[in-house]
Design brief:
The protein is α/β, with parallel strands linked by helices. Helices cover 47% and strands 13% of the residues.
Length: 391
């Protein structure tokens, strides 16, 4: 057996022994390495004098029972039969950004799907949020994910109900890339209502999990998998989240890791947006579409378009001409002398500007006076502008 194979088997076995994100196990791994650690926890190690430190006798006994029951050869064969694989730190497919988790780094990752994880992770964004989302939240998540996918970004989420599912569907509908980080084995379809969606992600994208085949989720595993979502991606977007939402855990972990944290605002009266708004008060950047997300997480030059209202014809006028136009009263005529007094310039200058405005259709001449055209006068009335001299 080669050293590489030994490492693979040892880490596959340890995913049966250690819980995801267990920092004590991470310290053991850093100190002794996977091959030596699994031997220490095996029946052979129990019979000797060497044993890991830092754990109580009862906890250590539990580890030993798990180690004895682990069958990494079977797990690797099972994942291969499902069309998947197991990747470990140091392998070509391992995403280096997961190393930012330190001792909480995954022991290894079980994958289903053909894309290369490390390459996908380099250009990925997490879209997370409430399970019991509103139609607005689902729409925003789906639209954001579709926009990111169309721009060549991988959308990462947790395959849960609500925002997660909407994000995955948006990316898939756009023909883009999406990956789901699961809190169970990648061969387990959970939640059951998303069995079809998870199957589709496995065929068209990637399913990612820390737990070996056949493992079922627990509440703590959902929280712990959030750290993988945060570390794996360039940034995390939260779309709807109450104050106690697990997606806020993902966002704050992302911030701790130096990733971009973004939030989509919602109604101030919505409890499902309260957590997002709390983030936006200082921990997150406000985003409303995919272009704004990419401007933050993307490379140089990937800028969102400039936001502005509609350009009106009067916006294109020379400042001097605009001042004369603004001085014209609504509903009546004014002479060039009156306008010159109102604007504070010479009569000849005003006359020149009036003819310029006349050629552009803003004003008309009536005898010795000048008046706004019906279109211009009406626009002023509709926008509630009170012109100098108006009644």
């Amino acid at each position: 057996m080669s050293a590489g194979r030994e490492e693979l088997l040892a880490r596959a076995a340890l995913t049966r022994v250690l819980e995801p994100g267990e920092e004590l196990g991470g310290r053991w791994l850093r100190r002794w390495g996977a091959v030596r650690l699994i031997r220490m926890l095996s029946a052979e190690g129990a019979a000797g004098t060497e044993a890991p430190d830092g754990a109580g006798a009862e906890r250590l006994a539990g580890y030993r029972k798990r180690a004895v029951a682990a069958d990494p050869e079977r797990d690797l064969a099972q994942i291969a039969e499902a069309g998947g694989r197991f990747v470990v730190p140091g392998s070509p497919e391992w995403p280096g950004q997961l190393d930012d988790l330190g001792d909480a780094r995954p022991v290894g990752l079980w994958l289903c799907g053909s894309p290369h994880l490390r390459i996908w992770a380099l250009r990925s964004v997490a879209v997370v949020g409430a399970r019991a989302c509103t139609p607005y939240g689902a729409h925003m998540a789906q639209t954001l994910a579709a926009g990111l996918a169309e721009r060549g970004w991988v959308v990462v989420s947790g395959a849960a109900y609500g925002i997660d599912g909407a994000a995955h569907r948006g990316a898939l509908a756009a023909g883009g890339a999406t990956a789901a980080v699961l809190a169970c084995g990648v061969d387990v379809r959970y939640p059951r209502g998303h069995a079809g969606l998870i199957g589709r992600i496995g065929r068209q994208g990637l399913l990612i999990g820390e737990l070996p085949p056949g493992s079922h989720p627990t509440p703590s595993r959902f929280v712990l998998r959030n750290r993988v979502i945060a570390a794996l991606t360039r940034g995390t977007v939260v779309v709807e989240a109450a104050y106690r939402s697990g997606s806020l855990v993902t966002a704050r972990r992302a911030r701790e890791l130096g990733r971009f944290v973004m939030g989509v605002p919602g109604p101030a009266t919505s409890g499902l947006s309260a957590g997002v708004h709390e983030l936006l008060r200082g921990e997150a950047e406000l985003v409303t579409d995919a272009a704004e997300v990419v401007e933050l997480v993307g490379g140089i030059g990937e800028l969102a378009p400039v936001r502005r209202g509609p350009v009106l014809a009067r916006d294109l006028l020379d400042p001097a001409a605009r001042r004369v136009l603004e001085a014209l009263p609504a509903g009546r005529t004014a002479t060039a002398a009156e306008l010159a007094l109102a604007v504070g310039t010479g009569t000849d200058e005003v006359i020149g500007r009036l003819y310029e405005l006349h050629s552009l259709g803003f004003v008309e001449r009536q005898g010795d006076g000048w008046k706004l055209t019906a279109r211009t006068d009406g626009a002023a009335t509709e926008t509630g502008v009170t012109r100098r001299g108006g009644r």
